[in-house]
């Protein structure tokens, strides 16, 4: 390889002597230009670092997501080896790029056909794109880049957001009574673990006397439940809100006083109170029926008396003997 300084000297010397045509100098310059390597094709940096997001990367179930990973300083990463793998599965990676192409094996079969490198490796971007995300895809991913002299790795954490069901609220009698009820809120199918909040009719958060329980199903979805001791009034309602963010939330409301019919009256049990209430209603029905019968009898008697009077008047005028008894027929 001829340095640029040497080229300049040759051309200058030839110009002074006048023994060589200018075309020869130009040919030499073209030849040297073709043999000098392009800077972009120079060997990769001896050392480098990886830049990844500080916090977790979030996405929705069923969508696509990019897990960012950038080589620093910027240079062409195509000659390098790029391996993306789950934190505990190095030998069965999510994606393996080697020898200038993505390798078919060994890779985790769960990710086959769903992953790619779309960041632009010629600019040092080795980000992983994952399509058709499921809840099982959440967790830690390791980005490892290796050259002949050096390697570096960094972790990216993926969370998959799933909005659960509408909260279901119920009311039960609180132990010890005292005008309090136990209000329960339940919502299922969340990812990750959501936040549950109780609020009153004024929108004020209720923090006292509440418990929250989270459980996970085999698919990793979270069910959240909470119960709250509350002394309701006729104008109060309660709201239970379950949320992952302001945009991803569910809310249920209830008027507790509707469900707070007395369970004991002067020491009488709930069952006895219900039986008494039923008997009272039956008694009212029977009394109403008897009153109806008596009313019908009275109306019949009055009609009979009126008819007798009219008959007697008619018979007297005709000189006939008054008729006998009047019979009342009551149907039904």
UniProtKB/TrEMBL annotation:
<dbReference type="GO" id="GO:0050852">
    <property type="term" value="P:T cell receptor signaling pathway"/>
</dbReference>
<dbReference type="Pfam" id="PF22705">
    <property type="entry name" value="C2-set_3"/>
</dbReference>
<dbReference type="InterPro" id="IPR050504">
    <property type="entry name" value="IgSF_BTN/MOG"/>
</dbReference>
<dbReference type="InterPro" id="IPR036179">
    <property type="entry name" value="Ig-like_dom_sf"/>
</dbReference>
<feature type="domain" description="Ig-like">
    <location>
        <begin position="167"/>
        <end position="256"/>
    </location>
</feature>
<dbReference type="GO" id="GO:0005102">
    <property type="term" value="F:signaling receptor binding"/>
</dbReference>
<dbReference type="InterPro" id="IPR003599">
    <property type="entry name" value="Ig_sub"/>
</dbReference>
<dbReference type="InterPro" id="IPR013106">
    <property type="entry name" value="Ig_V-set"/>
</dbReference>
<dbReference type="InterPro" id="IPR007110">
    <property type="entry name" value="Ig-like_dom"/>
</dbReference>
<dbReference type="GO" id="GO:0009897">
    <property type="term" value="C:external side of plasma membrane"/>
</dbReference>
<feature type="signal peptide">
    <location>
        <begin position="1"/>
        <end position="40"/>
    </location>
</feature>
<protein>
    <submittedName>
        <fullName>Butyrophilin subfamily 3 member A1-like</fullName>
    </submittedName>
</protein>
<dbReference type="InterPro" id="IPR003598">
    <property type="entry name" value="Ig_sub2"/>
</dbReference>
<feature type="domain" description="Ig-like">
    <location>
        <begin position="43"/>
        <end position="163"/>
    </location>
</feature>
<dbReference type="InterPro" id="IPR053896">
    <property type="entry name" value="BTN3A2-like_Ig-C"/>
</dbReference>
<keyword id="KW-0393">Immunoglobulin domain</keyword>
<keyword id="KW-0732">Signal</keyword>
<dbReference type="Pfam" id="PF07686">
    <property type="entry name" value="V-set"/>
</dbReference>
<keyword id="KW-1133">Transmembrane helix</keyword>
<keyword id="KW-0472">Membrane</keyword>
<dbReference type="InterPro" id="IPR013783">
    <property type="entry name" value="Ig-like_fold"/>
</dbReference>
<feature type="transmembrane region" description="Helical">
    <location>
        <begin position="272"/>
        <end position="296"/>
    </location>
</feature>
<keyword id="KW-0812">Transmembrane</keyword>
<dbReference type="GO" id="GO:0001817">
    <property type="term" value="P:regulation of cytokine production"/>
</dbReference>
């Amino acid at each position: 390889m001829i340095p640029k300084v040497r080229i300049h000297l040759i051309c200058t010397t030839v110009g002074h002597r006048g023994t060589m045509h200018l075309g020869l100098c130009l040919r030499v310059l073209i030849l040297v230009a073709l043999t000098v390597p392009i800077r972009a094709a120079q060997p990769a940096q001896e050392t480098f670092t990886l830049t990844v997001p500080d916090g977790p990367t979030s996405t929705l179930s069923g969508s696509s997501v990019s897990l960012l990973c950038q080589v620093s300083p910027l240079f062409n990463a195509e000659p390098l080896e790029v391996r993306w793998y789950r934190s505990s599965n190095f030998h069965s990676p999510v994606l393996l790029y080697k020898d200038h192409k993505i390798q078919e094996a060994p890779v985790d079969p769960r990710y086959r056909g769903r992953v790619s490198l779309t960041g632009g490796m010629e600019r040092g971007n080795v980000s992983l794109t994952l399509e058709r995300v499921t809840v099982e895809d959440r967790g830690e991913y390791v980005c490892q880049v290796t050259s002949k002299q050096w390697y570096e790795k960094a972790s990216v954490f993926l969370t998959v957001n799933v909005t659960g069901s509408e909260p279901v609220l119920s009311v039960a009698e609180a132990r010890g009574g005292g005008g309090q009820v136990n209000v329960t809120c339940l919502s299922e199918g969340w990812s990750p673990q959501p936040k549950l909040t109780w609020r009153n009719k004024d929108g004020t958060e209720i923090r006292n006397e509440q418990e929250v329980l989270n459980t996970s199903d085999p698919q990793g979805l979270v069910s959240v439940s909470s119960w709250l001791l509350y002394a309701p009034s006729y104008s109060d309602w309660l709201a239970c809100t379950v949320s992952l963010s302001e945009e991803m939330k569910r809310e249920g409301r209830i008027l507790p006083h509707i469900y707070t019919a007395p369970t004991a009256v002067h020491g009488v049990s709930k069952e006895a109170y219900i039986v008494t209430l039923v008997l009272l209603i039956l008694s009212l029905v029977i009394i109403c029926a008897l009153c109806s019968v008596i009313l019908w009898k009275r109306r019949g008697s009055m009609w009979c008396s009126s008819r007798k009077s009219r008959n007697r008047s008619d018979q007297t005028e005709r000189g006939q003997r008054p008729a006998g008894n009047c019979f009342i027929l009551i149907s039904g």
